[in-house]
Every structure is written in C-alpha cells, then in structure tokens.
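Researcher: Here's a chain I'd like modeled. Treat it as a single chain, no partners, no ligands.
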Amino acid sequence: MTDLQKRTLLKAAALTAVASAALVGCGKKEEPAPAPAAAPAPVASAPAKPAPLKIGFAYVGPVGDGGWTFAHDNGRKALEKEFGDKIVTSFVENVPESADAERVIRDMAGQGNKLIFGTTFGYMEPMLKVAGDVKDVKFEHATGYKQGENMRTYDSRTYEGAYMAGVIAGKMTKSNTLGVVASIPIPEVIRNINSFTLGAQSSNPKVKTKVVWVNGWFDPPKETEAATSLINGGADVLFQNTDSAAVLKTAEAKGKRAFGWDSDMSAYGPKAHLASSIINWGPYYIKATKEALDGSWKGGGHSWWGVKEGAIDIVSIAEDVPAETKAKVEEVKKGLTDGSFAIWKGPITDNTGKVQVAKDTVADDKFLSGLNFYVKGVEGKVPGSK
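Model: Modeled as a single isolated chain. Structure tokens:
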C-alpha cells in the first residue's frame, strides 16, 4: 500500500470517528409525543319530560244523561283535545250530594289529581273541607259561592239561555200556559224560572208559568211525572231545570212542545223540540287548566260566564219558529254579547206585586245570586220562602 493510500484511509477513519462522536455527544432529537386525543364532547341529554297534570272530575249524574253531566264531560274532552299528553283526565259519575262526595273527592286527591272539578252545587261543603286538608291540590267548584285558599268557584249564566228559550216559548204557546219542571229550589233554579218567564212575556204578555218541583237533579221517572202533571194542567210548552231528557220525551209522546237543557237534546224528541239552551264548559276548563300548567292559577275567586264568553247559547231552533222570533233571539244574543241588553232591567215585580227591580235599574250579580221570589206571571210560591 502506498503512502498516499494510507493517508486517504486514515483521513476517512478520522472523519468517521468525528461524526460518530458528534452523534453520541448530541444524541438524537426526539419528536414531540402526539397530544392525547380529545375526549368526545358529552351528548346533551334531553330534559326530562314533565309528568302530565292529573285532573279529576266528580259528576252528580251519569255521563249519558244527555244534559248537565253530558255537557261537563264534553268540556273534559275539550281539555284532552287542547292539551294532549300534557294532562291526564278521569271522572267519577253518579256521585251523590252527600258524605259520599267528600269520600270521592278525597280519594281523587289521594290518587294524585292536582286539579279537581266538582260539578254540582251540593259538593260545595265537602270540597271546601277536603281543600282545607289537601293544600297542594287545586279545587274548582261549579255553581257554589264559598271559596278557599286553594279552591275557587265557577258558574255559567244559564238564565241567559232560559230567557232566549222564553222568547220562543211565548210565541209558540197556544194555551198561553207554560210549564217548568224544576229541580231544587236554590237561587240558580229560581233565576232560570223567572228569566224564562220574562223572556216569554217579552213576546207574549199574556203567558203564565206553572212550576212543579222534583227535588232532585236527575230523576227521569219524577221528571216524567212532573211533565205529565203540567200538561194535564194546560201547559203546552215545557221548560226544565233538570238533567235528563225525560221532559222533552214526555212532550213528544203527548204532542206538546219543549226545550232541551244544558246540551242539545233535539234527538230525544224531534217533533216536540223547539230549541236547546246549552252550556259550553270547554272555554272555562281550558282556561283553568292552562293556569294550573303555567303556575298562574289562584284560588279564592269566582267566574260567571255567559253568552259573552261563549259559555251559553241556544241551538237547533225548530223550523216552524217564525223568522221574526228567531231574529229577536239573535238580537238578544248580540245584546248580551256586547252589553247593550240586560235581562234583569227594571221595572220588575214579583208575583205579589212588590217591585223587586226599580225602573231603569239593572240588577247586579249579588242580587241575582240571592233570588228567592217568583216574578209576576209565575204561579205559586217558592218552596221554603216566607
């Protein structure tokens, strides 16, 4: 090997050693470790759906009575249609106005109903008692006048429908004698008898009204007996403040005329039927339930709704009722809606000749809520009055 070759090899070896030393001294530069993968964002869970509001109804009669209870149950169905799965409704029918009412209402509260409707006057005291014991439940009592911290009352101005029926009755009677099958002598019923008579007198000043009391809300046999008695006494047009269709059916069987009450009863006596004065409880039940759902419900108040609020109407007027009479009914309805007409505007006298409402005076709700007399034209005396 020549000296040149030796020098070349030694130079290469030296360069290799220097390079190796550099690598050892500095070490290999490490790449940064990859950042840990981010945990997936938690999926937001949907808020828990609130439990539906449980609503209970206590009915004094059967749902199929065709009148009062049937109308309330239509109101319950309107609730279900309006609020869907936000509510659950239930009812107990044929609850007597006795100690049983307290038991049923208390049981409804125990089953988790947070809004309870008692749909007849006789439930007032039992419901007030339960309301005092069960403060987390909202109670609504129909036709009563006592309220509590968690109990309020509501009613419909049925006397407005009675007056419009009277307008028709006064025109359609041939004997000038009208008959009323009445339930229980409380102001509500007396007010309807009187308003029916006032309406009839507005279209026929010669009419007189006879009354037979059955002392119950739903008693078809007694209602039939009372209707028959009135017809035998000369009445050819019958009105009622009872819950079944027995009066209309009796009129149909005996060739007389009559009205449906609380619900459209035209199907029960097509030939006899002159019109039906109906109650639509749906608007109030929807309002009360909305308030219970949104937290704005307050106890202690009273609501009294009529034609103006869509709670009272007269429907299915018979074809043979004269056009001018139908027009008068529509005029009354319009006046009740816009406030331009008042049924109880004086002068109004009772059947003893005493002035009860002075000329040009409009009776207020307090007066109407305590009626205990018959107006001029109604025969007899209010049971229990002095």
